[in-house]
């Protein structure tokens, strides 16, 4: 390999024009005279625009006629350049004819102006940019698509839904928005792994896609849900389409790497724009219809329809929610106390603290009016915190009092509630032994391990545990023994008619006998008459509660009539 003689200077190298350099780089330069609309190109333009006649390149208007998708892109770039220093860079497509392939061009230029500030000419460079455009399009596609199914992701699905709503409103058209939920996808995850679940998701997307019409839109809404925009779709059409989708999903097994998997799906839909005037309303109502279909029967379809009672209840819920938050802030959440009496009627064993809410007019809202709404809207933990504070304060102020309180399922795993009760127990020695915490049987069934941990922690503090509404959830007695609870409260639905129902008598008597054998105390709820009370006493029930022994009130009887020592064993 030889090098240039050391005395050779750059001035002695072969002369290369700027046009030659641009041509070697696959670029061509131009000058566009604005007044005459004439464009002058360097020779390399012929190599770049191979299919475009030379005369078409000579005028700005003729050249613009070939531009896609927006012909005015160059003119608009000039206006923008005049406002931002004179330079610009744009991308556009060129097509010599309707059958010719699209050529993607990158153009950079500088606008020269006269003394009056008007544009005189444009000096610029163009080059072919097909690879970069393809890369940008691929990146755009990836940003819009779900990686598992290749369909629209949630963001772009909702954007397409918004566009469809606007279009339907403008042209007085209608369509349906559907949510398709794969039933029990979590079970597939647990049994086979996430890779098999992804195979199921991808295959279902393919099956749904095969059954769509041109113009319909499919996207992945969430982990187990797809969203569908079905254009020009009436309510009757939606029913037909939904059955087609459901049949296509349930009638064939899905081949996966772990073997065939059989699944079903549930669908909820809403007619747009009649019942969905914006994206939020459309999604919420489709989800509402989906939830309703799941409650009725998995693998079914439900179309959202107006419901006067539901809407009225929703307005009540909104009002009650606002009232609950305000009452918490204003300390209007209070307790009422219902006696739990020894079955031999020797006196109260303890009192159950029930939530009440004082209203502005002085009336009280009862627990059934407060707790369900508070649970549904995530306020129950705040309510449980307040009741805990009130109950601990009562126990601290009255050493002879014994109280129980109910907590919601969410509170059993609430770290803030635990931090509160532990700090209060430390601050008030002797209170824990007089506190009974009641949890519902349905919680114990579904979260046995978590509840067992909850029970053990409370027992370590010195408190006792009661299972409320026992009998409604059919907990096995083996699980009951595992939990090591202290008290079982028999669901009042079985107690209230024991004087007249042989079946209820047999059920309640059996529960009492089994609990006695397990050394668990029993409380019979909703006791309304002397006959029932006598039966329960004779069967060995420890305590009774209900209308016969006194309903809840704001009174604190233990302040005047102390509870017997060792009232609850």
Strand line-up in the sheet with most strands: 12-13-15-16-17-18-19-20
Largest β-sheet summary: 8 strands, mixed, barrel
N- to C-terminal separation? 103 Å
Instruction: Give the number of DSSP strands.
Output: 20
Derived structural class = alpha/beta
Quick one: overall form? elongated
Strand content: 15-25%
Helix tally?
20
What's the average pLDDT? 87
The gyration radius over C-alpha positions equals: 38 Å
Helical coverage, percent range: 40-55%
Extract low-pLDDT stretches: none
Q: Assembly type of the shown chains?
A: single chain
Characterise the protein shown here.
- There is one protein chain.
- With 569 residues, the chain is α/β, with parallel strands linked by helices.
- The protein is 42% helix and 22% strand.
- Strand 1 (27-33) and strand 2 form a beta hairpin.
- It starts with 17 loop residues before the first helix and ends in a 25-residue tail after the last strand.
Keywords:
single chain, 569 residues, alpha/beta, 8-stranded mixed barrel
């Amino acid at each position: 390999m030889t090098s240039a003689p050391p005395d050779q200077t750059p001035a002695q190298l072969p002369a290369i024009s700027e046009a030659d350099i641009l041509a070697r780089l696959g670029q061509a330069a131009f000058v566009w005279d604005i007044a005459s609309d004439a464009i002058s190109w360097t020779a390399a333009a012929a190599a770049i625009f191979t299919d475009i006649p030379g005369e078409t390149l000579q005028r700005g208007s003729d050249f613009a006629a070939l531009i896609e998708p927006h012909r005015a892109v160059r003119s608009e770039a000039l206006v923008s350049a005049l406002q931002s220093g004179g330079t610009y860079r744009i991308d556009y497509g060129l097509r010599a004819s309707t059958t010719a392939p699209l050529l993607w061009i990158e153009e950079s230029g500088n606008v020269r102006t006269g003394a009056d500030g008007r544009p005189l000419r444009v000096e610029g460079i163009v080059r072919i940019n097909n690879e970069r455009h393809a890369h940008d399009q691929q990146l755009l596609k990836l940003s819009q698509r779900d990686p598992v199914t290749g369909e629209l992701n949630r963001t772009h699905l909702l954007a397409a839904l918004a566009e469809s709503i606007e279009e339907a409103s403008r042209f007085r058209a209608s369509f349906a928005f559907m949510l398709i939920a794969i039933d029990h996808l979590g079970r597939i995850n647990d049994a086979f792994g996430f890779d098999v679940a992804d195979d199921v998701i991808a295959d279902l997307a393919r099956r749904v896609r095969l059954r769509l019409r041109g113009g319909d839109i499919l996207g992945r809404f969430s982990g187990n849900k797809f969203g569908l925009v079905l254009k020009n779709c009436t309510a009757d059409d939606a029913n037909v389409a939904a059955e087609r989708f459901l049949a296509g999903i349930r009638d064939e097994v899905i081949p996966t790497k772990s073997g065939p998997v059989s699944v079903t799906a549930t669908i909820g839909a809403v007619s747009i724009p009649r019942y969905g005037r914006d994206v939020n309303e459309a999604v919420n109502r489709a989800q509402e219809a989906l939830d309703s279909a799941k409650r009725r029967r998995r693998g079914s379809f439900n179309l959202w329809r107006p419901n006067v009672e539901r809407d009225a209840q929703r307005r009540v819920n909104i009002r009650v929610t606002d009232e609950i938050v305000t009452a918490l802030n204003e300390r209007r959440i209070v307790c009422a106390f219902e006696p739990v009496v020894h079955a031999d009627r020797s006196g109260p064993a303890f009192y159950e603290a029930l939530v009440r809410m004082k209203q502005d007019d002085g009336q009280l809202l009862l627990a059934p009016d407060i707790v369900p709404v508070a649970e549904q809207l995530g306020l129950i933990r705040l309510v449980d915190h307040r009741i805990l504070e009130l109950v601990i304060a009562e126990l601290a102020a009255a050493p002879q009092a014994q109280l129980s309180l109910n907590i919601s399922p969410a509170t059993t795993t609430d770290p803030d509630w635990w931090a509160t009760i532990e700090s209060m127990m430390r601050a008030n020695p002797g209170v824990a032994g007089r506190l009974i915490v009641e949890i519902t049987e349905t919680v114990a069934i579904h979260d046995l391990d978590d509840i067992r941990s909850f029970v053990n922690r409370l027992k370590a503090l010195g408190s006792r545990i009661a299972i409320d509404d026992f009998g409604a959830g059919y907990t096995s007695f083996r699980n009951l023994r595992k939990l090591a609870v202290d008290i079982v409260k028999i669901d009042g639905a079985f107690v209230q008619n024991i004087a007249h129902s042989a079946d209820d008598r047999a059920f309640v008597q059996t529960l009492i006998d089994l609990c006695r054998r397990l050394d668990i105390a029993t409380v019979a709820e909703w006791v309304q008459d002397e006959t029932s009370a006598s039966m329960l006493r004779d069967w060995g029930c420890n305590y009774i509660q209900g209308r016969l022994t006194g309903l809840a009130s704001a009174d604190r009887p233990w302040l005047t009539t102390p509870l017997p020592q060792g009232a609850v064993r």
